[in-house]
Amino acid sequence: MDTLDTLQADLLATIAAASDSAALEEVRVSAMGKKGRITALMGDMRNLSPEERKARGAALNAVKTAVESAIEARRAELKTAELAAKLEAERIDVTLPARPESLGRIHPITQTIDEIVAIFADMGFTVAEGPDIETDFHNFTALNIPPEHPARQMHDTFYLPPDADGGARVLRTHTSPVQIRTMLKEKPPIRIIAPGRTYRSDYDQTHTPMFHQVEALVIGEDIHMGHLKGTLLEFCRAFFQIDDLPIRFRPSFFPFTEPSAEIDIGCARKGGEMKLGNFGDWLEIGGSGMVHPKVLENCGIDSTKYQGFAFGMGIERMAMLKYGIPDLRTFFEADLRWLKHYGFVPLDQPNLAQGLTR
Questions:
Q1: How far apart are the C-alpha atoms of 315 and 179, rounded to whole Å?
Q2: Is residue 182 part of a domain?
Q3: Domain of 179: which CATH number?
Q4: Is-contact 289 251, C-beta < 8 A?
């Protein structure tokens, strides 16, 4: 029995001294493995008498139980200590500034929207939002778009199941419904921009089923085309960062504005390249006009007292022109290599004081 007591004390001391899980496993194997010390003693009992074997077996089982319990207790202690050490080694000081390279890249669409918002915010505009799923009234009727207009056809518009009252619902084809909702909710003067997703049934190098637009709306008592031109001139020059960028209006037709005009900016097309600036050629970037009196009346605004202007442009198109992106479809392909090439540093927030892009 003295030998078993010595063995147990020796093993318990070795277990307590194990510095890590690997060392503890070595102790377990040396004690209870196939060639372990306790296993060897159990094998020696074959030469004992039945009475001696019974007493010896009970004593060895007691030693084995004590050793197993000590191993489990020490394993739990080591596991707790190892976890604490790992957590300490991986501890992050959240008060330190983030490293830009670890934050990924800002998508050009997000960057362009932030730049547009920064410019118009400086002009006193606020950002308005609305739902992607719209009613026929907000998307078409209130905007003076007649029932036979091509924009209402299935080949242009994504129609959804009707609402509970049987009214038509669509994925909005422009952000103009945000203008309608704003005019229905607020009284003039109004000065908003409405950036957001829009949807049309089209897909090629310059069209996608889902894309982004930004529209602007200004309503007041003394608003005229001069305000529209001045706003767009300042915006385009600030956005493209070209001080002498020219702008012109070409007569057009939109159901929701009268008069209506396409917006062109100066450019050059030489050698297969597009260059923006005062070079004598022109490029269309959006549509604009004075808000149609019927649209004002549809929203409960007195068209004899108030008038305003509105314009809209595609955000992808603006980003492609500014940052030289040749194919619209690449915006939505989730290619990390493309994003690393065209993306922006997250911490460089656009503002007019320090510059839109750095």
A1: 17
A2: yes
A3: 3.30.930.10
A4: no
Tokens 């596991």 correspond to 79
Answer yes or no: do 85 and 211 share one domain.
no
pLDDT digits (tens, 9 = 90+) for 255-295: 999 999 999 999 998 877 889 999 989 999 999 999 999 99
> How does pLDDT run across 208-233, given as a tens digit for each residue?
888 999 999 999 999 999 999 999 99
pTM of the model: 0.70
In this prediction, residue 206 has a pLDDT band, given cuts at 50, 70 and 90, of low
**21/32 Cα distance (integer angstroms):** 16
Confirm whether 206 is domain-assigned: yes
Tokens read off for 88: 């300490």
Q: Among 59, 89, 119, give the residue marking a domain's end.
A: 89
158 and 28 part of one domain: no
Highest mean pLDDT among 59-68, 180-189, 274-283: 180-189
Q: The tokens of 13 are what?
A: 């001391």
What is the domain count for the chain? 2
